[in-house]
Every structure is written in C-alpha cells, then in structure tokens.
Design a protein that fits this description.
This protein is α/β, with parallel strands linked by helices. The protein contains 24 helices and 17 strands.
Length: about 625
C-alpha cells in the first residue's frame, strides 16, 4: 500500500476534488504502478466516492492497473503498421529476452510486457513505450540490448539507441528519438507564423463577435473527422449561459494511423495554445483544457513550459493582452489510454474522473459539457488553422481547396510507401496524387480515415479517368452509389480525420488488415451499447469462418445486415465499428467470394473428427475415429 500521508498529500494538491480523479490516479501510479485495495479504500473515504466508482475508472483505461506491474513496463503497439513491419519478430524477441509471455510480469517483478493499441508512431514502427519513453524502429537486436540495460538497472532514457529526433524532439524538455517526418507543407505548416500575433494585436483589432464572424466566413470545418462548422460551434458556445465557459483542445488522437497532432504539438505548440485563446476570446470562455493522450506523455513537460512562458508574457491569466475582463488559462489533462475518449462527450466524462463513456445527446457539450458548463471542443488541427485564418483573413483562406471543402488537410501517411510522414494537401487532392507524393507502388488498397473510415480499392484508380465508372461505399447511407470522377479527399467524396494507410498487393487484406481493425474495435469498445459490445465480436467470428473456408453466400449478407445494426450505437465508435468489414465487402467483395465454399445459401460441411479435438485434448484421450452408419 502507498503510505497514507503520500495519498493525502496528492489529494490536497488536487484540492480533494473527485472530478480530478484521473490526475490523482496518474500521480499515485507514478509511486506504485498499480492501485491496491487499501489505497483505493483511502481514496474512497477522502473523496466521498464508492470503491466501485474508483475501480471502474481504473479498470477502464489501458495505463491504469489493479494488479502489480513491473519496475519497467513495456507497451508494444499492436497497430496494423507495426504488424506490417514484422511486429511478430519484435514480440518474440521481447518474450524471449524478458522470459515471460505478453501481458505478464516477470517473476522477479522487474519487467512487465504488455500489448497496446496504436501509439501514434505509425511512420516509425515497430514502436513501444517503456516507462513513458518512446522507442521507435525496433529490431530484435535492439530489443535484446534494451532488456539487458533494464536488467542492469539503467535509467530508461539512457537506453535510447538513436539520436534525438528533429526539431523540438531534441528540446531538453523532450529528448525523444521520435522524428517529425514532415514531407509537405502548405498554409498551416508553413513557417510564416509570428508567435502570438492574435494575442498581441488581434484581440484589439477584432471584437469577439467579429472573430466568430471571420471563422464563419472562412467555412472552416472541424478537422477531427466529423466536419462540423467551427464558427457555428463557437457561436453556439458563446450564446449558451453558464457561470463559466470552457475551451477543450482534443489531443486524444487514437485513430490508428493518425499522428498529425503529435507533430503539431511538437513543432507548433504556441499556435495550438493561441488557437485555444482565440476561441476563448470569441466565446467568452475562462477555462481551457488540453486533453493530451497518455501515449504523448513525453511531451508533457515541454508543453507545460510553453504555457508558463505564455503566462509570464500575459498571454494567459488575468486581463490577457491588456483587455479588461479577458481572463483565461489552460491546464493539461492527461488521458490514460482509451480510444473512445476521442469522442467529445466521452473525453469530458474522462476529464471529470469517470469512465470515458459517451453521453446521450442532447444536451450537447456547447450547452452542458465539462462540469455542466457550456463547452467548446475543437481538434488540434482545427485550432491551428483558425489562427492562420485570423492572421490572413477568410478571403485568403477561401483560395485553397474546393467549393465544398475549403483549405488544406494534414494527412498522416503510413504503410507500404517510401516516404511515410505528414503531408499537408489542399482539399480536393486526388488519391492518385497522394500516392505519387509518398512513393507508393503496387498499391492494392488505401485505408482512408483509419479503421473507422473506408478501405478503398486502387485497382481501378490506377488508371481511372473522368469517364470511367467506380462504385464506392457511402458509410452514412449503407448504399452503393455510382461516380464518374477520380476519388478525391473532400467532405463530399472521401472525408478523413487524416489517417491514410497504404497496402500493396502482397498484403492479405482480410486476414491481416480487416481482422486487425476488428480486433481493435472489440478491444476499444466502452461496452455501454449492446450493439457495439457484441456485434463487432460476432462479425469478426463470421469473418474468421469465411477465412477458414466454411463460409457461404448468406454469410456475406449477414455481415452487411449486422453492419446496419451497429448504426444504432450512440457514438461514432460503435456506429463505424463495422466499417472495416463493410467497406471491404463493397470494394473487395471478390476476396470474400474467393474464400466461400460456393454461392449456395447454407453450410452443409461438418467434420465430426475435427469438432471433438478440443474435447479429446482436455480429457487426455487418444483420438477416436467415428464412423457414421
């Protein structure tokens, strides 16, 4: 048990506020690495919570634990890109060198070895997090040396085997081997940003109403994937009544294949925080929170330093920029590993110290969000884009992109390509051009928007022109439509939060890719809705049946039908959890039909001998031959 005096001290640091339970648990995990029953009892008594309430929060997040973990804890990512880069060999090396299987702790309590979902390092896989330090481009030899160093008791940062990465990755408060891999810049990433321009002069140039009007005129849409108009969200928030108003920057980019926010937070943190400040000025908000995914803990000290520098310059705090009554400050809330917290209401629940389960709507966060206050939640990319718009004007911004999709989009490109990394392209860019940029060859398919997005066939795209027919899957309507244009990144064709994963013709799309994505959704479901809790598992089993050669035509129709059932889920995770299977059926149906026995409706094959093998194993019997008379 943690000494009670230490527990009390941590509680006092957080003012014994039960809504700060996430921070309290994070601090306690630094001391002991897990929560024992005695510590939980003290927390329950001091915070006036039940043990069940505390335990349900602990059990919800990947990086919390109710069981003892090791002195060194290794979290090896299980992303599809890691598997494409021979994660299997890395896992085998860790298990061999550690002397334990995955998701276990060594008998001496020194090493804990765990699997985890995507950690935002898809451009430099295989990767792992060890005691909050990121290790990229792992090899079996590097694993051997890492484990040898840990067994020798070395500091984990001393085991970094590559030079620090570029840009601020080499900052004394970061010192990470992570690389930015910025491959293409446009209006957002272009280094023409004068730090804190808006806070210095913009707040004196614009009234709050004028700021909102400028963002509305730009037609800026949210860059998290949903594409809700940013100016409209700010206007709604400014009109909602409450004792406080809250600005939240959603930096919980958990969609597999996405890592653009990692780069923005590393290289453009001032622009992120100024975007939050501009939103606060426009909406009359006084509370700001950056919700940072736990996997990016290595950036925490650096980001806190930037915030302190802003406070010293009066760009945060009381009467910002000399504007009487403009009081606004930002704190950083670490998550603890949960994909669902990318959904804005689940994120707010997490900020309040609870399980990250989505809320029923209405009310929407702009009406009643964090602690019941009107809350505006914006994506990292949305906020930095807003800063550029306020710097250059809505008219300037309208010169980029297409009529229905203005501006640019940051893409996180990974997979089978020569140059994985960050690409800023104008909306409307054809996928064929994106493939040329990143050096992708022999392309079989592209996953646009991560697992929750769409698996697009490139067999036709490689030679498609404006007169050729292409069938595509429309996620919102479940129907097949006809288009006579090349596939383009836009809200009217291929919307995306930014993840682009490329697969060449050597990849097993169903057994390797779709199966990995379905396992991801099963792992990350909060379990609140019966649809999301059950259907992805059922659909995965049906897919496995097909891959095992026991599928029939009706199995494909079942999958399509069950995908519709998932639309009843109350949040985006559940509603899109079937997309890996659904979009692959629409665009790669021939792969399914290749595996099924025939186009008959029923499975009439039954092998009795195979079916009793499991029974024979457990009763230790020799194989028995059955003969049907």
């Amino acid at each position: 048990m943690i000494e009670k005096s230490l527990i009390i001290d941590i509680l006092q640091q957080h003012k014994n506020d039960c809504t700060r339970l996430m921070d309290i648990l994070l601090d306690l995990h630094k001391i002991q690495n897990y929560m024992d029953k005695e510590t939980i009892s003290v927390l329950a008594e001091e915070l006036d919570l039940s043990r069940a309430e505390i335990e349900e929060t602990i059990s919800f997040y990947h990086f919390f634990s109710l069981k003892p973990r090791g002195k060194y804890n290794i979290y090896l990512t299980d992303s599809i890109t890691a598997n494409m880069k021979n994660r299997k060999a890395i896992l085998e090396a860790f298990e061999r060198e550690c002397g334990t299987k995955i998701n276990n702790v060594t008998p001496d309590g020194l090493l804990g070895l765990y699997t985890t979902s995507c950690i935002g390092m898809n451009d430099q896989e295989p990767a792992a997090i060890i005691n909050d330090v990121v290790f990229t481009n792992l090899t079996p030899y590097r694993v051997k040396e890492l484990v040898k160093g840990m067994r020798a008791g070395e500091e984990i940062k001393d085991l970094i085997y590559e030079n620090y990465g570029d840009g601020n990755n080499a900052d004394p408060d970061v010192e990470s081997m992570v690389s930015n891999n910025i491959r293409k810049k446009s209006i957002v990433l272009k280094k023409d940003y004068e730090t804190y321009t808006f806070v210095k002069s913009g707040i004196k140039k614009y009234t709050p109403t004028e700021v909102i009007k400028e963002i509305e005129n730009s037609n800026l849409r949210g860059r998290g994937g949903a594409g809700f108009p940013t100016g409209l969200k700010w206007r709604f928030g400014s009109q909602s009544q409450g004792e406080h108003r809250v600005i939240i920057c959603n930096a919980d980019e958990g969609e597999p294949g996405t890592f653009k926010d990692r780069v923005l937070l590393t290289e453009y943190p001032e622009m992120v925080f100024e975007g939050m400040t501009a939103a606060a000025y426009a909406t009359g908000s006084d509370i700001g929170v950056l919700y940072l995914r736990y996997e990016y803990t290595y950036l925490l000290k650096f980001l806190k330093r930037i915030l302190n520098e802003m406070r010293k310059k009066n760009f945060l705090g009381k009467n910002i920029g000399g504007i009487e009554g403009f009081d606004f400050d930002i704190r950083i809330q670490l998550g603890a590993g949960a994909y669902i917290c990318g959904e804005e209401s689940a994120l707010i629940e997490s900020m309040e110290g609870k399980r990250g389960e989505p809320r029923d709507k209405p009310p929407f966060p702009v009406e009643k969000g964090y602690l019941g206050y009107p809350t505006i939640v914006n994506n990292v990319e949305t906020l930095v884009t807003a800063v550029k718009i306020l710097q250059n004007g809505a008219k300037w911004y309208s010169g980029f992109g297409t009529n229905d999709s203005l501006g640019t989009k940051l893409l996180s490109i990974s997979g089978d390509c020569k140059f994985p990394g960050i690409y800023e392209v104008e909306w409307g860019t054809p996928l064929t051009e994106v493939m040329e940029m990143c050096g992708a060859e022999d392309v079989q398919a592209i996953q646009v928007g991560g697992p929750s997005g769409m698996l697009v066939s490139l067999k036709d795209l490689s030679h498609l022109n404006s007169t050729q027919l292409m069938k595509w899957y429309k996620p919102s309507g479940m129907e097949v439509a006809e288009r006579y244009i090349d596939r383009r990144l836009s809200y009217s064709d291929l919307p995306t939060g930014g993840s682009i994963i490329i697969f060449n013709n050597q990849r097993d799309l169903l057994g390797e890719v779709v199966m990995n994505f379905m396992e991801f959704f099963i792992e990350e479901s909060c379990g609140s809705c019966s649809t999301c809790r059950n259907m992805p598992y059922v659909m995965k089993n049906k897919l496995q049946k097909i891959l095992d050669g026991h599928g029939v035509k009706s199995d494909i129709e079942d999958l399509l039908s069950w995908g519709k059932t998932l639309k009843a889920s109350r949040c985006g995770l559940g509603q899109t959890a079937g997309n890996p299977i659904l979009s692959s059926i629409f665009n790669f149906r021939h792969l399914y039909e290749k595996h099924i026995q025939s186009l008959t409706e029923y499975d009439t094959v039954f092998n009795l001998e195979n079916s009793v093998q499991t029974y024979q194993k457990f009763v230790h019997k020799e194989p028995v031959l059955f003969h049907l008379q």
